[in-house]
User: Fold this.
Amino acid sequence: MEKEFNRDIDEMVEEIGKLPYKEQQAIGWLINNFDLVEEICKDSALTMQEIEQHKKIAAEKEDYVTLALLCAAEVYKNKRSGGSDSSNRA
Assistant:
């Protein structure tokens, strides 16, 4: 079990390392501020359509922290509705 967990972590680190620097920074911010991210995103008043619209704008502006927050809001909203978050990847 621990071996599998360590392998998963190693794979994640490898994949993150392939991302552009700005995206790596956003993921680092997300990890370092996870409690804040959870608090901000768990009860978002945005609709799924609004989240999608804002994700497009954030991606166009290369605002990866905002994009990450919106993705987190999407995941929490899907969890609450019992839906899957895999169909709406950024």
About this structure: Helices lie at 2-17, 21-32, 34-41, 48-60, 64-81. The chain is about 75% helix and 0% strand.
